[in-house]
Amino acid sequence: MTTLADAPTRTSLADVSAAARTGVHAWVAAVAELTEPDAVVWCDGSDDERRALIAQMVGTGTLLPLDPTLRPGSYLARSDPDDVARVESRTFICSQDQSDAGPTNNWREPGAMRTELDEVLVGSMRGRTMYVVPFSMGPVGGPLSQIGVQVTDSPYVVVSMGVMTRVGTAVRELVEAGAPFVPAVHSLGMPLVDGATDVPWPCSTTKYIAHFPETREIWSFGSGYGGNALLGKKCFALRIASVMGRDEGWLAEHMLLIRLTAPTGRRYHVAAAFPSACGKTNLAMLRPTLPGWRVETIGDDIAWLRPGPDGTLRAINPEAGFFGVAPGTGEATNPAAIETLSHDTIFTNVALTPEGDVWWEGLTDEAPAHLTDWTGRPWTPDSPTPAAHPNSRFTVAAAQCPTIADGWDDPEGVALDAIVFGGRRATNVPLVAQAESWEHGVFMGATISSERTAAAEGLVGELRRDPFAMMPFCGYDMADHWEHWLEVGAALEHKPLVFQVNWFRKDESGQFIWPGFGENSRVLAWVVDQVDRSRGLRTDVGAVTSPVGLLPAPGALDTDGLDLSVDALAALFEVDRDSWALEADLTQEFFATFGDRVPPALHSRLAHLRAALDD
Asked: Dihedral, CA atoms, 4, 220, 109, 28, nearest 10 degrees?
């Protein structure tokens, strides 16, 4: 590969960055001069374009068509075994000031990172086509939406971006007319030179996912997988957008969005943040067991929240598709997701059945007798490795979801009634608790955690912190993120109520106490009942105080028909003083990692917790 030492006058990353400020065509030309593709193609997001790219990938072996009867319009991709997930250790925030990145991000000085990227990106697209993908996060032209332009040498990425975002000529026209855009460069890092033979899944052993917050740039090199390559997702919609939100007075959050309709017909909108493996997708597509209640999906992963002119906090799902984890998704756990995947889906790193369909752990109770695993090797239930990679994925349009809400892509968004935080806790955290104030709600979000395996023995154990479920995704200092939440809330006339939930509390034998899944609708019903009480629409008592927040009053949480004893119900809401005192100590240690940037309001809430435990 040619380096800058061989060609010192070549276009550099600094030149590309400067070109972006003069217009999209100058920027695209500068990227092409740097990466040297054989051709440059502007994408229009059309069905014809999608079909042509899919046919191209079938020809190269990147995509394997599935049985057209069992899984119409669907394909299987198998990635390189070294390119199967986000590479957090190679994900960087390149802010001018290291302190702005904070202790939870990998920081690189911008100039040094540009120099490193210059070395690997020169000529990195030789022998390939560079696709230009103009895309909108959120409905095109919407007041809460933002525009990006991604260049990539991966047709897999182009097709996936067409599912996950709004790609098309309308977006191109906006950026050509001068609309601001986030410039995003992606290269597989595998040029085809000197007669090199391509492979179905090209990628480099060297990887970078670099974000430049001040210039809103994203540079990704070496990976073709998921959030490393679909730059509209975590890179733009969270890391860069969180900085945009901080600067402009809104929030970009790792949250699902749902509409909850009561038997009375009253509608409520709820955003919820959960770390991985905490039931996020299941809640986004929940099918309530409570008669007369309905849950509709607006988004399953990311929400942008902006104060509205009416004093509410309005939210949109900026994505157009779902990029979900396959293992654990099954008819018993999430029937809506299974129906969503019945056609026109790209599956990555799942297993293949002899009939030409897909399978993964959790799809059915019993595994098929024979499969081809995600690496292309024969597999049986006696095999020592999983049939599907634990991070195997599906990419599918949100509009295919049977629980998708009418108007889910309304450009104006929805006014939030409640915000819910949750983690996976076997001990301590009650099934549901309501924050006493917005400040208390921010404290709840800042202290989200899940217990590691040792905690199953009944000890508080070591906590895996994931504040606001944003630990890997916040593009600036996490403590500043908490301060920003406080500032946004202070400006709201009609604040959403804030809650914390925990579906995963266990009894002394290690069994889950709460049945979860569809029964979680009972908790949501109490949440929106509290919304009604806060607005004077109900006058009955719904909650009692506790050191950790407001808990459901006796009888306020509907448990009729559940096999749940009085003792079990009490255990779900037990607040053990000694365990919570230890938790307060751990929270103080966690806050200390952020130095003096932790907002005083959160220190006050921690002191309030200690005082309440002592009372």
From this structure: 60
In the block, tokens 């020809």 appear at: 59
| Each residue's pLDDT tens digit, 221-278 | 999 999 999 999 999 999 999 999 999 999 999 999 999 999 999 999 999 999 877 8
Distance (Å, rounded) from C-alpha 36 to C-alpha 548?
A: 58
Q: 602-607 long-range contacts, Cβ below 8 Å, gap at least 24?
A: 602/439, 602/442, 602/443, 602/446, 602/482, 604/439, 605/439, 605/440, 605/443, 606/443
Q: Which domains does the chain have, with CATH numbers?
A: 13-63+85-249 (3.40.449.10), 252-321+408-614 (3.90.228.20), 322-400 (2.170.8.10)
With both helix axes pointing from N to C terminus, report the angle between 155-164 and 47-60 in degrees, rounded to the nearest 10.
Answer: 140
Cα–Cα distance for residue pair 23/32, rounded to 1 Å: 15
| C-alpha atoms less than 13 angstroms from C-alpha of 130 in its C-beta half-sphere | 27
Residue 222: what pLDDT?
A: 98
Spot the catalytic one: 94, 203, 235, 278.
278
Q: Per residue in 99-122, pLDDT tens?
A: 999 999 999 999 999 999 999 999
Q: Is 43 a catalytic residue?
A: no
Burial class for 461, CB neighbours closer than 10 Å (0-12, 13-18, 19+): middle
Q: Each residue of 471-504: pLDDT tens digit?
A: 999 999 999 999 999 999 999 999 999 999 999 9
Q: Is 525 left (phi over 0), alpha (psi -120 to 50) or beta?
A: alpha
